[in-house]
Protein backbone atom coordinates (compact mmCIF):
# COMPACT_ATOMS: atom_id res chain seq x y z
CA UNK A 1 0.00 0.00 0.00
CA UNK A 2 1.36 3.43 -0.92
CA UNK A 3 1.55 6.18 1.69
CA UNK A 4 -1.13 8.11 -0.22
CA UNK A 5 -3.46 5.11 0.04
CA UNK A 6 -2.76 4.75 3.77
CA UNK A 7 -3.29 8.46 4.39
CA UNK A 8 -6.49 8.50 2.36
CA UNK A 9 -7.87 5.61 4.41
CA UNK A 10 -6.97 7.49 7.61
CA UNK A 11 -8.34 10.81 6.34
CA UNK A 12 -11.75 9.37 5.58
CA UNK A 13 -12.45 8.66 9.26
CA UNK A 14 -12.41 12.29 10.25
CA UNK A 15 -12.67 14.39 7.08
CA UNK A 16 -15.76 14.01 4.87
CA UNK A 17 -14.58 12.14 1.80
CA UNK A 18 -11.03 12.42 3.14
CA UNK A 19 -10.58 15.89 1.63
CA UNK A 20 -11.23 19.52 2.44
CA UNK A 21 -12.41 20.40 -1.07
CA UNK A 22 -14.36 17.88 -3.18
CA UNK A 23 -12.41 17.84 -6.44
CA UNK A 24 -9.32 16.65 -4.55
CA UNK A 25 -11.01 13.29 -3.91
CA UNK A 26 -10.35 12.05 -7.50
CA UNK A 27 -14.07 11.37 -8.01
CA UNK A 28 -13.65 12.80 -11.51
CA UNK A 29 -10.91 10.33 -12.48
CA UNK A 30 -11.27 7.41 -10.09
CA UNK A 31 -8.53 5.93 -7.89
CA UNK A 32 -6.89 7.25 -4.76
CA UNK A 33 -5.99 10.92 -4.42
CA UNK A 34 -2.29 11.63 -4.22
CA UNK A 35 -1.15 13.15 -0.95
CA UNK A 36 1.63 15.69 -1.40
CA UNK A 37 4.12 16.99 1.10
CA UNK A 38 6.48 19.28 -0.76
CA UNK A 39 6.60 21.48 -3.84
CA UNK A 40 9.38 23.45 -5.47
CA UNK A 41 9.30 25.43 -8.70
CA UNK A 42 7.36 23.44 -11.32
CA UNK A 43 7.47 20.22 -9.30
CA UNK A 44 5.32 18.69 -6.63
CA UNK A 45 6.35 15.64 -4.56
CA UNK A 46 4.01 13.05 -3.13
CA UNK A 47 4.27 11.23 0.17
CA UNK A 48 6.05 8.36 -1.61
CA UNK A 49 8.73 10.77 -2.93
CA UNK A 50 7.48 10.55 -6.49
CA UNK A 51 8.09 13.83 -8.38
CA UNK A 52 5.52 15.28 -10.78
CA UNK A 53 5.59 18.19 -13.18
CA UNK A 54 2.67 20.15 -11.75
CA UNK A 55 0.02 21.71 -14.00
CA UNK A 56 -2.44 22.36 -11.18
CA UNK A 57 -0.33 24.88 -9.29
CA UNK A 58 -2.72 24.80 -6.31
CA UNK A 59 -5.50 25.55 -8.85
CA UNK A 60 -3.83 28.69 -10.14
CA UNK A 61 -2.05 30.65 -7.40
CA UNK A 62 1.45 29.30 -8.07
CA UNK A 63 2.05 31.36 -11.20
CA UNK A 64 5.69 32.01 -10.27
CA UNK A 65 6.25 28.39 -9.25
CA UNK A 66 6.11 26.77 -5.84
CA UNK A 67 8.14 28.05 -2.89
CA UNK A 68 9.50 31.08 -4.71
CA UNK A 69 12.37 32.46 -2.57
CA UNK A 70 11.08 36.06 -2.75
CA UNK A 71 7.66 35.03 -1.45
CA UNK A 72 9.20 32.92 1.31
CA UNK A 73 11.53 35.77 2.34
CA UNK A 74 8.62 38.23 2.51
CA UNK A 75 6.66 35.81 4.70
CA UNK A 76 9.63 35.15 7.01
CA UNK A 77 10.19 38.88 7.53
CA UNK A 78 6.54 39.50 8.33
CA UNK A 79 6.35 36.43 10.56
CA UNK A 80 8.75 37.99 13.02
CA UNK A 81 6.52 41.07 13.26
CA UNK A 82 3.26 39.26 13.89
CA UNK A 83 0.77 36.98 12.18
CA UNK A 84 -2.48 38.89 12.44
CA UNK A 85 -3.60 42.08 14.15
CA UNK A 86 -7.26 42.44 13.19
CA UNK A 87 -6.47 46.13 12.72
CA UNK A 88 -5.28 48.25 9.80
CA UNK A 89 -1.74 47.81 8.49
CA UNK A 90 0.28 49.72 5.91
CA UNK A 91 0.83 46.66 3.78
CA UNK A 92 -2.93 46.52 3.08
CA UNK A 93 -2.73 49.99 1.55
CA UNK A 94 0.26 48.94 -0.54
CA UNK A 95 -1.72 45.93 -1.74
CA UNK A 96 -4.79 48.03 -2.57
CA UNK A 97 -2.65 50.56 -4.45
CA UNK A 98 -0.90 47.81 -6.39
CA UNK A 99 -4.16 46.09 -7.37
CA UNK A 100 -5.73 49.38 -8.52
CA UNK A 101 -2.58 50.19 -10.51
CA UNK A 102 -2.57 46.82 -12.30
CA UNK A 103 -6.35 46.62 -12.84
CA UNK A 104 -7.40 50.21 -13.57
CA UNK A 105 -11.16 49.48 -13.53
CA UNK A 106 -10.68 48.86 -9.80
CA UNK A 107 -10.73 52.27 -8.14
CA UNK A 108 -11.24 50.81 -4.68
CA UNK A 109 -10.68 47.31 -3.38
CA UNK A 110 -11.58 45.25 -0.32
CA UNK A 111 -9.50 42.21 0.67
CA UNK A 112 -11.15 38.96 1.74
CA UNK A 113 -9.95 35.40 2.39
CA UNK A 114 -11.13 33.39 -0.60
CA UNK A 115 -12.62 33.65 -4.06
CA UNK A 116 -15.96 32.52 -2.66
CA UNK A 117 -16.04 35.47 -0.28
CA UNK A 118 -15.04 37.84 -3.07
CA UNK A 119 -17.87 36.82 -5.40
CA UNK A 120 -20.44 36.51 -2.61
CA UNK A 121 -19.62 40.03 -1.43
CA UNK A 122 -19.58 41.47 -4.96
CA UNK A 123 -23.06 40.02 -5.56
CA UNK A 124 -24.37 41.48 -2.30
CA UNK A 125 -22.88 44.83 -3.24
CA UNK A 126 -24.44 44.73 -6.72
CA UNK A 127 -27.81 43.92 -5.18
CA UNK A 128 -27.45 46.60 -2.53
CA UNK A 129 -26.31 49.19 -5.06
CA UNK A 130 -29.03 48.55 -7.64
CA UNK A 131 -31.83 47.61 -5.24
CA UNK A 132 -32.55 44.58 -7.45
CA UNK A 133 -32.49 40.88 -6.55
CA UNK A 134 -31.96 38.96 -9.78
CA UNK A 135 -28.51 37.98 -10.96
CA UNK A 136 -27.35 36.39 -14.21
CA UNK A 137 -24.70 33.70 -14.35
CA UNK A 138 -23.70 31.16 -17.00
CA UNK A 139 -24.03 27.42 -16.89
CA UNK A 140 -20.70 25.75 -16.12
CA UNK A 141 -19.15 28.90 -14.66
CA UNK A 142 -18.09 28.42 -11.04
CA UNK A 143 -17.93 31.39 -8.73
CA UNK A 144 -17.37 29.68 -5.39
CA UNK A 145 -19.93 27.99 -3.20
CA UNK A 146 -22.12 30.76 -1.85
CA UNK A 147 -25.85 30.05 -2.12
CA UNK A 148 -26.79 32.40 -4.96
CA UNK A 149 -23.92 31.18 -7.10
CA UNK A 150 -24.23 27.44 -6.57
CA UNK A 151 -26.80 27.13 -9.32
CA UNK A 152 -25.73 25.18 -12.42
CA UNK A 153 -22.14 25.70 -11.35
CA UNK A 154 -19.00 24.21 -12.89
CA UNK A 155 -15.84 22.65 -11.43
CA UNK A 156 -16.36 20.22 -8.52
CA UNK A 157 -20.10 20.89 -8.51
CA UNK A 158 -20.20 19.57 -12.05
CA UNK A 159 -17.84 16.64 -11.41
CA UNK A 160 -19.97 15.46 -8.52
CA UNK A 161 -23.22 16.04 -10.37
CA UNK A 162 -24.64 18.52 -7.88
CA UNK A 163 -24.98 21.69 -9.91
CA UNK A 164 -27.86 22.72 -7.68
CA UNK A 165 -26.80 21.77 -4.19
CA UNK A 166 -29.26 20.65 -1.53
CA UNK A 167 -29.24 23.33 1.14
CA UNK A 168 -29.59 26.20 -1.33
CA UNK A 169 -33.09 27.55 -0.63
CA UNK A 170 -35.31 27.54 -3.72
CA UNK A 171 -36.47 31.00 -2.67
CA UNK A 172 -32.94 32.25 -3.15
CA UNK A 173 -32.00 30.16 -6.22
CA UNK A 174 -35.01 31.55 -8.07
CA UNK A 175 -33.24 34.89 -8.25
CA UNK A 176 -30.33 33.34 -10.17
CA UNK A 177 -30.93 33.29 -13.92
CA UNK A 178 -28.64 30.85 -15.70
CA UNK A 179 -27.81 31.41 -19.36
CA UNK A 180 -25.52 29.65 -21.83
CA UNK A 181 -21.92 30.87 -21.98
CA UNK A 182 -21.08 32.49 -25.31
CA UNK A 183 -24.76 32.65 -26.36
CA UNK A 184 -25.12 36.30 -27.33
CA UNK A 185 -28.76 36.05 -28.47
CA UNK A 186 -29.87 34.45 -25.24
CA UNK A 187 -28.28 37.26 -23.23
CA UNK A 188 -30.03 39.91 -25.33
CA UNK A 189 -33.37 38.15 -25.06
CA UNK A 190 -33.08 37.77 -21.30
CA UNK A 191 -32.36 41.48 -20.86
CA UNK A 192 -35.23 42.41 -23.17
CA UNK A 193 -37.56 40.44 -20.93
CA UNK A 194 -36.34 41.17 -17.40
CA UNK A 195 -33.36 43.53 -17.77
CA UNK A 196 -34.78 46.05 -15.34
CA UNK A 197 -34.92 43.47 -12.53
CA UNK A 198 -31.33 42.35 -12.92
CA UNK A 199 -28.74 43.54 -10.40
CA UNK A 200 -25.72 42.12 -12.18
CA UNK A 201 -24.16 39.68 -14.56
CA UNK A 202 -21.32 37.64 -13.10
CA UNK A 203 -19.09 35.90 -15.61
CA UNK A 204 -15.75 34.18 -15.89
CA UNK A 205 -14.35 36.24 -18.78
CA UNK A 206 -12.47 33.10 -19.82
CA UNK A 207 -14.38 30.11 -18.46
CA UNK A 208 -12.00 27.93 -16.48
CA UNK A 209 -14.36 25.72 -14.53
CA UNK A 210 -15.76 23.85 -17.52
CA UNK A 211 -12.32 23.05 -18.84
CA UNK A 212 -11.02 26.19 -20.59
CA UNK A 213 -13.40 28.06 -22.90
CA UNK A 214 -12.44 31.53 -24.12
CA UNK A 215 -15.20 34.04 -24.90
CA UNK A 216 -16.34 34.20 -28.55
CA UNK A 217 -16.05 37.53 -30.29
CA UNK A 218 -18.82 39.87 -29.23
CA UNK A 219 -19.82 37.93 -26.09
CA UNK A 220 -18.16 40.12 -23.46
CA UNK A 221 -19.05 43.22 -25.52
CA UNK A 222 -22.71 42.20 -25.42
CA UNK A 223 -22.58 41.74 -21.65
CA UNK A 224 -21.23 45.28 -21.32
CA UNK A 225 -23.93 46.66 -23.63
CA UNK A 226 -26.90 45.02 -21.90
CA UNK A 227 -25.61 46.10 -18.50
CA UNK A 228 -25.20 49.68 -19.71
CA UNK A 229 -28.69 49.84 -21.13
CA UNK A 230 -30.41 48.17 -18.16
CA UNK A 231 -28.49 49.63 -15.24
CA UNK A 232 -27.20 46.22 -14.15
CA UNK A 233 -23.58 45.90 -13.01
CA UNK A 234 -21.08 43.77 -14.91
CA UNK A 235 -18.93 41.64 -12.61
CA UNK A 236 -15.88 39.93 -14.06
CA UNK A 237 -14.95 37.03 -11.85
CA UNK A 238 -11.21 37.11 -12.40
CA UNK A 239 -10.38 34.81 -9.47
CA UNK A 240 -8.78 32.50 -12.04
CA UNK A 241 -7.93 34.83 -14.92
CA UNK A 242 -6.69 37.76 -12.82
CA UNK A 243 -2.96 38.45 -13.27
CA UNK A 244 -2.83 35.21 -15.29
CA UNK A 245 -4.23 35.66 -18.78
CA UNK A 246 -2.59 39.11 -18.85
CA UNK A 247 -1.11 41.37 -16.18
CA UNK A 248 -4.39 43.31 -16.02
CA UNK A 249 -6.47 40.12 -16.33
CA UNK A 250 -9.02 39.20 -18.97
CA UNK A 251 -10.40 42.75 -18.96
CA UNK A 252 -7.07 43.95 -20.30
CA UNK A 253 -6.74 41.07 -22.77
CA UNK A 254 -10.22 41.55 -24.24
CA UNK A 255 -10.54 45.31 -23.70
CA UNK A 256 -13.84 45.24 -21.80
CA UNK A 257 -14.24 47.21 -18.57
CA UNK A 258 -16.42 45.65 -15.87
CA UNK A 259 -18.01 47.59 -13.00
CA UNK A 260 -16.74 45.15 -10.39
CA UNK A 261 -13.94 42.60 -10.43
CA UNK A 262 -13.30 39.67 -8.12
CA UNK A 263 -9.82 38.31 -7.55
CA UNK A 264 -8.21 35.41 -5.69
CA UNK A 265 -5.55 32.75 -6.24
CA UNK A 266 -2.52 34.66 -7.72
CA UNK A 267 -3.15 37.66 -5.48
CA UNK A 268 -2.25 35.56 -2.42
CA UNK A 269 0.65 33.58 -3.91
CA UNK A 270 -0.72 30.46 -2.20
CA UNK A 271 -2.02 32.11 0.99
CA UNK A 272 -5.81 32.22 1.47
CA UNK A 273 -6.75 35.53 -0.17
CA UNK A 274 -9.45 37.06 -2.34
CA UNK A 275 -10.46 40.60 -3.22
CA UNK A 276 -13.28 42.50 -4.83
CA UNK A 277 -13.34 46.01 -6.12
CA UNK A 278 -14.34 48.33 -8.89
CA UNK A 279 -15.95 51.68 -9.48
CA UNK A 280 -15.57 54.10 -6.59
CA UNK A 281 -19.27 55.09 -6.62
CA UNK A 282 -20.22 51.42 -6.23
CA UNK A 283 -17.54 50.49 -3.69
CA UNK A 284 -18.56 53.44 -1.51
CA UNK A 285 -21.70 51.46 -0.69
CA UNK A 286 -19.64 48.97 1.32
CA UNK A 287 -19.63 49.36 5.09
CA UNK A 288 -18.39 51.29 7.01
CA UNK A 289 -18.74 53.93 4.26
CA UNK A 290 -22.10 52.65 3.09
CA UNK A 291 -24.89 50.31 4.19
CA UNK A 292 -23.88 47.04 2.45
CA UNK A 293 -22.30 44.88 5.15
CA UNK A 294 -19.11 42.91 4.64
CA UNK A 295 -16.35 42.02 7.11
CA UNK A 296 -13.60 39.54 8.08
CA UNK A 297 -11.48 38.75 11.16
CA UNK A 298 -8.48 37.78 9.06
CA UNK A 299 -9.16 39.97 6.01
CA UNK A 300 -6.05 41.79 4.81
CA UNK A 301 -3.92 39.39 6.83
CA UNK A 302 -0.35 40.74 6.81
CA UNK A 303 1.29 37.42 5.94
CA UNK A 304 -1.06 37.00 2.99
CA UNK A 305 -0.53 40.60 1.89
CA UNK A 306 3.27 40.42 1.83
CA UNK A 307 3.19 37.06 0.04
CA UNK A 308 0.79 38.40 -2.58
CA UNK A 309 2.75 41.61 -3.04
CA UNK A 310 5.98 39.70 -3.61
CA UNK A 311 4.25 37.64 -6.31
CA UNK A 312 2.64 40.70 -7.92
CA UNK A 313 6.05 42.39 -8.10
CA UNK A 314 7.48 39.44 -9.98
CA UNK A 315 4.61 39.12 -12.41
CA UNK A 316 4.76 42.88 -13.10
CA UNK A 317 8.21 42.45 -14.63
CA UNK A 318 8.32 43.19 -18.38
CA UNK A 319 7.61 40.20 -20.63
CA UNK A 320 6.37 38.00 -17.77
CA UNK A 321 3.03 37.30 -19.43
CA UNK A 322 4.42 37.13 -22.97
CA UNK A 323 6.73 34.40 -21.77
CA UNK A 324 3.95 32.60 -19.87
CA UNK A 325 1.70 32.72 -22.93
CA UNK A 326 4.55 31.43 -25.12
CA UNK A 327 5.08 28.46 -22.80
CA UNK A 328 1.38 27.63 -22.65
CA UNK A 329 1.19 27.81 -26.47
CA UNK A 330 4.22 25.56 -26.79
CA UNK A 331 2.51 23.03 -24.54
CA UNK A 332 -0.86 23.26 -26.32
CA UNK A 333 0.67 23.05 -29.82
CA UNK A 334 2.83 20.12 -28.75
CA UNK A 335 -0.19 18.27 -27.37
CA UNK A 336 -2.15 18.89 -30.57
CA UNK A 337 0.72 17.61 -32.72
CA UNK A 338 1.28 14.53 -30.53
CA UNK A 339 -2.42 13.65 -30.66
CA UNK A 340 -2.45 14.12 -34.42
CA UNK A 341 0.59 11.87 -34.89
CA UNK A 342 -1.10 9.14 -32.85
CA UNK A 343 -4.48 9.70 -34.49
CA UNK A 344 -6.43 10.69 -31.37
CA UNK A 345 -9.21 13.26 -31.94
CA UNK A 346 -8.16 16.07 -29.65
CA UNK A 347 -8.50 19.80 -29.17
CA UNK A 348 -6.47 22.12 -26.94
CA UNK A 349 -6.46 25.84 -26.26
CA UNK A 350 -4.74 28.41 -24.05
CA UNK A 351 -5.54 31.88 -22.81
CA UNK A 352 -2.30 33.31 -21.44
CA UNK A 353 -1.10 31.06 -18.63
CA UNK A 354 -4.21 28.88 -18.47
CA UNK A 355 -5.04 26.07 -20.86
CA UNK A 356 -7.54 23.34 -21.57
CA UNK A 357 -7.65 20.14 -23.60
CA UNK A 358 -10.55 18.06 -24.85
CA UNK A 359 -10.94 14.59 -26.29
CA UNK A 360 -13.22 15.53 -29.16
CA UNK A 361 -13.54 15.55 -32.95
CA UNK A 362 -14.33 19.28 -32.79
CA UNK A 363 -11.63 21.90 -33.30
CA UNK A 364 -13.41 24.62 -31.32
CA UNK A 365 -15.24 24.14 -28.04
CA UNK A 366 -17.24 27.27 -27.26
CA UNK A 367 -20.16 26.10 -25.16
CA UNK A 368 -21.05 24.10 -22.07
CA UNK A 369 -22.97 21.63 -24.23
CA UNK A 370 -20.04 21.00 -26.57
CA UNK A 371 -17.73 20.61 -23.60
CA UNK A 372 -20.07 18.06 -22.01
CA UNK A 373 -20.05 15.96 -25.17
CA UNK A 374 -16.28 15.37 -25.01
CA UNK A 375 -14.96 11.90 -24.21
CA UNK A 376 -14.60 11.83 -20.43
CA UNK A 377 -13.48 8.19 -20.36
CA UNK A 378 -10.49 9.05 -22.52
CA UNK A 379 -9.70 11.98 -20.24
CA UNK A 380 -9.67 9.64 -17.22
CA UNK A 381 -7.29 7.22 -18.95
CA UNK A 382 -5.05 10.09 -20.04
CA UNK A 383 -4.98 11.52 -16.52
CA UNK A 384 -3.81 8.22 -15.00
CA UNK A 385 -1.28 7.46 -17.75
CA UNK A 386 0.19 10.93 -17.27
CA UNK A 387 0.31 10.43 -13.52
CA UNK A 388 2.35 7.26 -14.06
CA UNK A 389 4.66 9.30 -16.29
CA UNK A 390 5.22 11.88 -13.52
CA UNK A 391 2.88 14.62 -14.76
CA UNK A 392 0.17 15.95 -12.45
CA UNK A 393 -2.89 17.29 -14.28
CA UNK A 394 -6.14 18.51 -12.74
CA UNK A 395 -8.01 15.39 -11.55
CA UNK A 396 -11.22 16.25 -13.43
CA UNK A 397 -12.12 16.92 -17.05
CA UNK A 398 -13.88 20.18 -16.21
CA UNK A 399 -10.86 22.06 -14.90
CA UNK A 400 -8.41 24.37 -16.65
CA UNK A 401 -4.68 23.68 -16.45
CA UNK A 402 -2.12 26.18 -15.21
CA UNK A 403 1.44 26.83 -16.21
CA UNK A 404 4.01 28.80 -14.24
CA UNK A 405 7.14 30.83 -14.75
CA UNK A 406 9.06 27.90 -13.25
CA UNK A 407 8.12 25.47 -16.05
CA UNK A 408 11.12 25.13 -18.36
CA UNK A 409 11.19 24.01 -21.99
CA UNK A 410 12.64 20.72 -20.71
CA UNK A 411 9.66 20.28 -18.37
CA UNK A 412 7.25 20.88 -21.21
CA UNK A 413 9.16 18.56 -23.57
CA UNK A 414 9.10 15.92 -20.84
CA UNK A 415 5.32 16.45 -20.62
CA UNK A 416 4.87 16.20 -24.38
CA UNK A 417 6.80 12.93 -24.61
CA UNK A 418 4.70 11.57 -21.74
CA UNK A 419 1.55 12.72 -23.54
CA UNK A 420 2.49 11.01 -26.78
CA UNK A 421 3.13 7.73 -24.96
CA UNK A 422 -0.18 8.14 -23.10
CA UNK A 423 -2.07 8.84 -26.35
CA UNK A 424 -0.53 5.66 -27.80
CA UNK A 425 -1.66 3.61 -24.81
CA UNK A 426 -5.20 4.98 -25.21
CA UNK A 427 -5.14 4.23 -28.93
CA UNK A 428 -4.02 0.65 -28.34
CA UNK A 429 -6.84 -0.19 -25.92
N1 LIG B 1 -14.37 32.10 -8.95
C1 LIG B 1 -13.66 31.38 -9.83
C2 LIG B 1 -13.63 31.79 -11.27
C3 LIG B 1 -12.96 30.26 -9.40
O1 LIG B 1 -12.26 29.55 -10.28
C4 LIG B 1 -13.01 29.90 -8.03
C5 LIG B 1 -12.27 28.69 -7.49
N2 LIG B 1 -11.71 27.85 -8.35
C6 LIG B 1 -13.76 30.69 -7.16
C7 LIG B 1 -14.42 31.78 -7.65
C8 LIG B 1 -13.85 30.37 -5.70
O2 LIG B 1 -12.62 30.60 -5.09
P1 LIG B 1 -12.26 29.87 -3.71
O3 LIG B 1 -12.11 28.43 -4.01
O4 LIG B 1 -10.98 30.54 -3.29
O5 LIG B 1 -13.37 30.14 -2.75
Automatic annotation (TrEMBL):
Database matches in InterPro entries: 4pyrrol_synth_GluAld_NH2Trfase, Aminotrans_3, Aminotrans_3_PPA_site, PyrdxlP-dep_Trfase, PyrdxlP-dep_Trfase_major, PyrdxlP-dep_Trfase_small
Positions carrying N6-(pyridoxal phosphate)lysine: 265
EC class: isomerase
Catalytic activity: (S)-4-amino-5-oxopentanoate = 5-aminolevulinate
Pathway membership: Porphyrin-containing compound metabolism; protoporphyrin-IX biosynthesis; 5-aminolevulinate from L-glutamyl-tRNA(Glu): step 2/2
Database matches in Pfam families: Aminotran_3
Record's subcellular location: Cytoplasm
Gene Ontology molecular-function annotations: glutamate-1-semialdehyde 2,1-aminomutase activity
Keywords recorded for this protein, A-Z: Cytoplasm, Isomerase, Porphyrin biosynthesis, Pyridoxal phosphate
Main location: cytoplasm
Cofactor: pyridoxal 5'-phosphate
EC number: 5.4.3.8
Transmembrane segments: none
Taxonomy, superkingdom: Bacteria
Family: Belongs to the class-III pyridoxal-phosphate-dependent aminotransferase family. HemL subfamily.
Subunit structure: Homodimer.
PANTHER family: GLUTAMATE-1-SEMIALDEHYDE 2,1-AMINOMUTASE, GLUTAMATE-1-SEMIALDEHYDE 2,1-AMINOMUTASE 1, CHLOROPLASTIC-RELATED
Record protein name field: Glutamate-1-semialdehyde 2,1-aminomutase
Gene: hemL
Amino acid sequence: MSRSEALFARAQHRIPGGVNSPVRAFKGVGGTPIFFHKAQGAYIYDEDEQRYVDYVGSWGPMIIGHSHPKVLDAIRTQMDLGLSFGAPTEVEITMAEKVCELVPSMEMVRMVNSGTEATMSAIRLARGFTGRDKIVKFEGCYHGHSDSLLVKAGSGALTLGVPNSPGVPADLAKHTITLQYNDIDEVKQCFQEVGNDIACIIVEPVAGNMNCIPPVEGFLETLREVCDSSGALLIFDEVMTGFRVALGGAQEKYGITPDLTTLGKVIGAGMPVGAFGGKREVMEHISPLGPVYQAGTLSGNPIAMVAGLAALDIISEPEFHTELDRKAKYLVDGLLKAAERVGIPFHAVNAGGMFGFFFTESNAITSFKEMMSCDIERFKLFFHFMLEEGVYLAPAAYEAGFISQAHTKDDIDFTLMAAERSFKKIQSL
